[in-house]
Design brief:
The structure holds 2 protein chains of 2 kinds. In chain A, a hairpin with a 3-residue loop joins strand 9 and strand 10. Chain A is built from 13 helices and 12 strands. Chain A is of the alpha+beta class. Chain A is 62% helix and 14% strand. In chain B, helix 2 runs parallel beside helix 3. Chain B has a 5-stranded parallel sheet with strand order 2-1-3-4-5, sandwiched between helices. Chain B is an alpha/beta fold. Chain B is globular and about 30 Å long. The chains are: A alpha+beta, B alpha/beta. Chains A and B meet through helix 8 and helix 9 of A and helix 1 of B.
């Protein structure tokens, strides 16, 4: 288990506290023991002193008795008189002080002997006083000496016993002192160890935390810089639409300070006409985690003017650190304005170009038709060339306009359920005349399938591909027009037996105004934009288009369309 | 085809002339020409054409305004009108149709089939 600094500190302090308490208790007990020891020593000393004193007093009594017995001088009786009460006092004291059972027993042995001795001495004195001679008192004296020996011996044993007790006590004291010392040593060492460990853990943890903090600060600084440096507005939205975070770019783009809008609901800033779209998109985003919806809408600034922004939303509700929908809003007002201007320009230019072309096309067409008069062959030929090229110019302008509008998203596909096979047949019908004129056979194998697609655009796509195939087919050749159903898509293929396309050009032919080689479809009246337009249409249906070819044998153009085409929200709104 | 009289209203002289040439020589119809909406309305009242081919983009009174004027004028209200325009897109087409024109023809037109296109749009033949 990894210990954190907090744990280590708590453990360290608790242990230190515990140790202090233990030391306190041990000190207290030690002090008490020492006091007890001192008391005991005093106690023992007292007993020893008393015991010796007792013996000394008894000796005095002995000496007094014997002295009087022999000499008869009353002077010898003084010590006896003095000693006797002292002895009683000592005996009483000893009786009160001695705790040791052995010594108590010895005392109880000693006491009667002492009393007996005193009595004996008293009796001896009395007999001497009564006139008896020392020679007659020899037995008494002997008895007295025996008693004294007994007293001395018993007292001696008592002393020894006390010494023994003292020694035992001393040993005990030593032992407990050693124990205490041992405990304190062990305690101190463990305390030091533990605290060292705690310190180690604390420092390691603190170092780790510092490192993490530094890394966090760095990361935060970096990301803050990123967000602040981002020219797009970064928003974090709660499921209610409340703006949990608004990046500073909002000031530059809309004119609000982030703190002024943070906490408010984003929908209150969206243009009323865009509300519905925005609500739908937001709902979608909330349902599907990570689902990004590119969307354009208007946001209101503080002066009530609007700016167009392009929104990318990412549902990060499941991320515990964020729990929000993160929005990236790019100011596209200028871009849209530019696109609008470009649209307008292209529109206007197309219109302007078409106007004189109308007259040219009209006049040349009438001339070439012969309805206004006949022309010599050469003149007729020139007129045909003029007509063909003014036709080509018309088609070119149409294609440019078409392509530009599709690219800018101005043209929405009008998708609905379409029987693709029918469209294939219609396209083939449209191209039949051209095929016959070029002596090319059309081999059509339509596929029975319904797709969600724009029928006119599908028609345009197939016609275009067929037209190319026919143009590049040799006389007597066949163009195969087939459809194949796959698990998730359908593949429509147009195959010709023309001279083929080199491998390095298979991609570039779909770009504008690309030539495969010198003699290409442009020669045959193409605009150079057909495949670019077709690719745009296919991509707008969520599909793919590509070409395969073997030089000298022919080429196949394949269009893959998904069976379930997803709609972009822009289309869903239109 | 019967002899038809078509009024062509377009501010571009050349286009008028080519259109008129086409309708006359290819379809064998007769034509009237007006270079503006106002002139067109006058000619429509006087000439009582069978149909009016009307350019959309004209200065001053444009195609839509002219059409409205024609419709609200009892003398011209029932003359069918076909728009002629260089601006043709799917959405535009719809818009013009909503305005009350019978059809929208695009510029440039095919001079050899202009008359047929008009006839088809108006259900003649």
């Amino acid at each position: 288990m990894r210990w954190s600094a907090e744990r280590a500190i708590v453990a360290g302090f608790t242990t230190a506290l515990l140790l202090l308490v233990i030391v306190g208790i041990l000190s207290y007990r030690n002090t008490k023991k020492m006091r007890e020891a001192t008391d005991f020593v005093q106690h023992t000393r007292g007993i020893l002193d008393d015991t010796r004193e007792l013996v000394s007093q008894m000796k005095d009594i002995e000496t007094a008795g014997r002295g009087f017995a022999i000499v008869g001088d009353r002077q010898f009786l003084r010590p006896f008189v003095a000693a006797e009460p002292r002895v009683q006092v000592i005996l009483a004291r000893l009786n009160a002080e001695i705790q040791d059972p052995l010594n108590r027993q010895l005392l109880s042995e000693l006491t009667p002997v002492v009393q007996k001795k005193i009595e004996a001495t008293r009796s001896l004195i009395a007999r001497r006083e009564s006139g008896m001679l020392p020679a007659e008192l020899v037995d008494d004296l002997q008895v007295g000496r025996d008693l004294m020996d007994h007293i001395r011996e018993t007292a001696g044993r008592m002393e020894m016993r006390e010494f023994q007790l003292l020694q035992e006590r001393a040993l005990q004291a030593d032992e407990s002192e050693r124990q205490v010392a041992y405990i304190l040593q062990v305690g101190s060492i463990s305390a030091v160890l533990f605290l060292s460990l705690a310190l180690f853990v604390i420092f390691r943890d603190l170092r780790e935390r510092n490192r993490i903090e530094a890394a966090l600060r760095n990361a935060e600084h970096r990301f803050r810089a990123l967000i602040q440096g981002s020219s797009d507005i970064v928003l974090m939205l709660a499921p209610t639409g409340e703006m949990l975070f608004v990046s500073p770019a909002v000031e530059r783009i809309l004119g609000y300070r982030s703190q002024d809008v943070q906490g408010k609901n984003v929908f209150s800033y969206i243009h009323p006409d865009d509300q519905h779209l925005a609500q739908d998109a937001f709902r979608n985003t909330l349902t599907v985690p990570g689902f990004a919806v590119p969307l354009q809408l208007r946001l209101r600034g503080p002066d009530s003017s609007y700016r167009w922004v392009e929104i990318l939303a990412n549902n990060l509700m499941s991320d515990p650190g964020l729990k929000a929908v993160v929005i990236n809003a790019r100011d596209v007002t200028e871009r849209l304005e530019l696109e609008r201007l470009k649209d307008e320009f292209v529109s206007v230019v197309s219109h302007e170009l078409r106007t004189p072309l109308t007259s040219i096309r009209g006049a040349l067409g009438l001339l070439a038709s012969g309805k206004i008069g006949d022309f010599p062959d050469k003149a007729q030929r020139m007129l045909e060339i003029a007509v063909n090229n003014s036709d080509r110019l018309v088609r070119l302008i149409n294609d440019i306009l078409d392509l530009e509008r599709m690219e800018s998203g101005r043209v929405s596909m009008h998708k609905r359920a379409v029987a693709i096979g029918d469209v294939m047949l219609q396209a083939a019908d449209l191209m039949r005349a051209m095929a016959e004129k070029s002596n090319v056979r059309l081999d059509v194998h339509p596929v029975e399938l319904e797709l969600h697609a724009d029928p006119d655009r599908m028609m345009q796509t197939f016609s275009n591909l067929l037209s190319n195939a026919i143009k590049f087919s040799p006389e007597g050749g066949t163009v195969r027009f087939t459809g194949e159903v796959k698990p998730n898509s359908v593949i429509v293929a147009v195959q010709d037996e023309g001279r083929g396309i080199p491998a390095e050009k298979l991609q570039s032919i779909f770009e504008r105004f690309q030539q495969v080689d010198v003699s290409d479809s442009r020669e045959k009246g193409g605009t150079g934009l057909g495949l670019a337009i077709v690719r745009m249409i296919v991509e707008q249906h969520g599909g793919k288009i590509w070409a395969e070819s073997v030089l000298g044998q022919g080429s196949t153009f394949l269009v893959e369309l998904p069976l379930a085409t997803g709609e972009s929200s822009a289309e869903a709104a239109s | 085809m019967h002899d038809r009289k078509i009024l062509i209203i377009d501010d571009e002289d050349d286009i008028r002339e080519v259109a008129a040439m086409s309708l006359e020589t290819v379809s064998g119809w007769s034509t009237l020409q007006a270079r503006s909406g106002e002139e067109g309305i006058l000619l429509a009242e006087q000439g009582r054409p069978d149909a009016i081919v009307l350019d959309v983009m004209m200065p001053d009174v444009d195609g839509s305004a002219t059409l409205q004027a024609l419709r609200s004028n009892p003398a011209t209200a029932d003359i069918p009108v076909i728009f002629l325009t260089a601006k043709v897109q799917g959405s535009d087409r719809k818009k013009f149709a909503e305005l009350g024109a019978y059809a929208v023809l695009s510029k440039p037109f095919d001079p050899l089939t202009l008359g047929d296109q008009i006839a088809e749009a108006l259900g003649w033949k």
